[in-house]
């Protein structure tokens, strides 16, 4: 096992997140037909879960309209989702935001499939800032500048975006690993869903695909109380401070980061991601 960095220790301190049941989730046994959605928070996790749920039902919206999104693809590291996770009947949909070092060992010996969805980290940063007002599990900050500094330092819920992303990218080339970009999903949703189906060994009839597209649109998700988090309102979510499904676009960082912040970000990106091919990061 690789060394646990300070960022990860920070994450482990989070009550209810990894916290107390860390031993329990580390013993979790992946099965070969499991599908794991793996993301750094605010990269489009819920969109991917909605798409995978609809692929599973061949576009029939009954399941997504009757079962909350967190029960359809529970987070392995969240204490009160663990039972739902174990009770699921296969093929299971599973979610995680954890860095690769913290995943149960069984993932790497099973044939479970991993869909790693990444997004322009500047958009991840901005999305996370607005989300911190809605969700108390996120660090509460006084300003975007404060969130910006914490994000660059990796002093946020899941640690450094740079380390998290590089860690999971080390699985590139494995048959059981598919890396996708939020930006391509946004730009060409249909072909990206076809790519996902191919990876999962599934086929959809044209009308089934149309139904997947229709029911996973951001508007459909906002209108679906099983996906818009209104059921969680008042717990650690406070939807008075903003919607769970905010804008859903690529490049919103341009409306929020200053030129100086963007430049400082780019310098950090160059330094941390040096050595990885630029085509892995097709955004501006
Ligand atoms: P923004 O805050 O930039 O709008 P996660 O699910 O990992 O928390 O990611 C949340 C981000 O994904 C939010 O970004 C949200 O709007 C976006 N998102 C969620 N569902 C979407 C959809 N159907 N289409 C496009 N973007 C979506």
Automatic annotation (TrEMBL):
E.C. numbers: 2.8.2.-
The family this protein is said to belong to: Belongs to the sulfotransferase 1 family.
Matches recorded under PANTHER family: SULFOTRANSFERASE SULT
Keywords: Transferase
Domain Sulfotransferase positions: 33-276
Keyword Endoplasmic reticulum found: no
Gene3D superfamilies the UniProt entry points to: P-loop containing nucleotide triphosphate hydrolases
Enzymatic reactions: 4-ethylphenol + 3'-phosphoadenylyl sulfate = 4-ethylphenyl sulfate + adenosine 3',5'-bisphosphate + H(+)
Domain of life of the source: Eukaryota
Enzyme class: transferase
InterPro entries, alphabetized: P-loop_NTPase, Sulfotransferase_dom
Pfam families from the UniProt entry: Sulfotransfer_1
SUPFAM superfamilies hit by this protein: P-loop containing nucleoside triphosphate hydrolases
Organism per entry: Erinaceus europaeus (Western European hedgehog)
Protein name (record): Sulfotransferase
Keyword Transferase assigned: yes
